[in-house]
Amino acid sequence: MSTLFRRGVFGASLAVAAIAGVGLSAAQAGATPPPPPPSACAQDSFNATVTPADHTAGHSHYRVTLTALDSTAACTLSGSPTEVAFYQGETPLGVEAASYGEGEAVVFGPDQPVHFDIQVPNTAGGAAADRVDFRLQQGDGSLSPVGSALGEITVDAGTQVGPVQPGA
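Above: the chain's sequence. Below: its structure in token form.
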């Protein structure tokens, strides 16, 4: 086989490979990777609902369940939510909630829902609310942006909020 013939075959092979798209183009080789997904703890990265839970003697309980969007990355939460505020429509009710219980680190992300308990004393004259705003304590000590949970709840003086726990 002559050198000229081998060069011709090699050149033809390169041309076929280029036409077929074998190998990386300059744009592909220098492409930057996509940005990481947003944290499940970020604003607008989860859904939250308030539902009635089992009552105990002298108290009503409500469960706030947080479900991360599928397009988010897991984050770590610990302790009880802070800066909890209750609303009826857009009207703040002015009921302050204290924290109770010991919190542990909890992973929150897609397919890893979490919840926390709101405990309200059974007293006459509680205020009806349809929204709870809160900030979550992240594992590094920082606070999340304000999150909101929707659902019917009655609150009153002495309302307490428990730590974030795994599961719905």
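Residues 2-21 have pLDDT under 50 and may be disordered.
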